[in-house]
């Protein structure tokens, strides 16, 4: 990916953020390493071979994580958007808890389950509820999705996204979501983020998936609603979760950008391990 004006790309091995710098490293699927001055955040860390309750069946990754679990820098905060297996990877969360001892932030109903797995400390939030860490304000944002982890537990826990704001930077991580009025509402409440991390994959067939996952055209409309300085694609190209081909979301995003008049530099598609630097 070529760097656009105001951003630059670097290898993931250079993990130092400058005094005023925001660094985003795309690891895979929905996992980003977000580095701010004095704060390092990891979103929905997924490092297991399969997005499944067992590692001998279920969707299998098509490429390795762009940064290995044991190569992560010190992590201060882990955000867990909801309890689906391709977002709440218990093996990865346990490893991170043991090595880094970060704060875990998630939606209502998830904290007790995580603590039972030895994952703590955990703060759980309702939609629009906030907490803070090292000068950063963290807001758990609404999303159009659902939750379950095993039989009989549908929608017993809350799902959502993260609005991360400091005095200098703002990042919106959408989590899993269908297209909805929440994007316009977020902009009304908080203004436009510096960066929006938006899902583009797992969307076919539309009669079934449209309420829970955006397709690339939906993601471009969400980008227009939010009007961020930069949107970055996620939730594509790692696990084949639905009917579209593994590479189709990227091709469809290009068509959607052209159809809506959005330039390539405004909505970028990272490769695993790539770091985007925003001063």
Q: How would you name the oligomeric state of the polypeptide chains in this document? A: single chain
Which geometry do the CA atoms define?
globular
Query: What structural class should be given to the helix and strand makeup?
Result: alpha/beta
Helix-strand string: EEEEEHEHEEEEEHEHHEHEE
**Strands side by side in the biggest sheet:** 1-15-2-3-4-5-6-7
Q: What fraction of residues sit in β-strands?
A: 25-35%
**Arithmetic mean of pLDDT:** 93
List low-confidence stretches: 1-14
The largest β sheet comes out as: 8 strands, mixed
How many helical stretches?
Answer: 6
What does the model show?
There is one protein chain. The chain has about 280 residues and is α/β, with parallel strands linked by helices. About 20% of the residues lie in helices and about 25% in strands. It has six helices and 15 strands. The chain has helices spanning about 90-100, 110-115, 180-190, 205-210, 215-225, 250-260, and strands at about 10, 20-30, 30-35, 40-45, 75-80, 105, 120-125, 130-135, 135-140, 160-165, 170-175, 195-200, 230-235, 265-270, 275-279. Strands 1-15-2-3-4-5-6-7 form an eight-stranded mixed sheet. Helix 3 runs parallel beside helix 5 (about 215-225) and helix 5 packs across helix 6. The longest helix is centred in the C-terminal third of the chain and has 13 residues, at about 250-260.
Entry summary:
The protein is of the alpha/beta class and 279 residues long.
Task: Give the SSE layout.
Elements: E1 8-11, E2 22-28, E3 31-36, E4 39-43, E5 77-80, H1 90-100, E6 103-107, H2 111-116, E7 122-125, E8 130-133, E9 136-141, E10 161-165, E11 170-173, H3 182-190, E12 195-199, H4 206-209, H5 216-226, E13 230-234, H6 248-260, E14 267-268, E15 274-278
Parallel strand pairs: 4-5, 5-6, 6-7, 11-12, 12-13, 13-14
Antiparallel strand pairs: 1-15, 2-3, 2-15, 3-4, 8-9, 9-10, 10-11
């Amino acid at each position: 990916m070529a760097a656009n004006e105001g951003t630059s790309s670097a290898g993931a091995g250079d993990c130092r953020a400058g005094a005023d710098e925001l660094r985003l490293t795309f690891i895979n699927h929905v996992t980003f390493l977000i580095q701010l001055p004095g704060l390092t955040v990891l979103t929905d860390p997924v490092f297991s071979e399969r997005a499944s309750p067992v590692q001998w069946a279920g969707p299998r990754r098509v490429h390795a994580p762009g940064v290995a679990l044991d190569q992560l820098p010190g992590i201060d905060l882990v955000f867990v958007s909801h309890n689906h297996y391709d977002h709440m990877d218990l093996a990865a969360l346990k490893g991170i808890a043991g090595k880094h001892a970060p704060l875990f932030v998630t939606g209502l109903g998830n904290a007790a389950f995580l603590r039972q797995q030895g994952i703590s400390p955990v703060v759980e939030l309702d939609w629009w509820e906030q907490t803070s860490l090292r000068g950063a304000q963290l807001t758990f944002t609404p999303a159009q999705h659902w939750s379950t982890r095993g039989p009989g537990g549908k929608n017993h826990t809350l799902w959502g996204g993260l609005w991360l704001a400091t005095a200098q930077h703002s990042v919106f991580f959408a989590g899993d979501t269908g297209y909805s009025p929440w994007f316009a509402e977020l902009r009304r409440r908080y203004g436009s983020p510096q960066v929006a991390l938006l899902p583009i994959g797992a969307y076919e067939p539309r009669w079934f998936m449209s309420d829970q996952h955006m397709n690339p055209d939906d993601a471009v409309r969400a980008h227009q609603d939010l009007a961020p300085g930069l949107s970055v694609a996620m939730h594509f190209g790692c696990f084949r979760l639905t009917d579209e081909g593994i590479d189709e979301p990227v091709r469809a995003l290009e068509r959607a950008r052209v159809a809506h008049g959005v330039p390539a530099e405004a909505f970028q598609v990272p490769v695993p391990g790539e770091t985007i630097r925003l001063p």
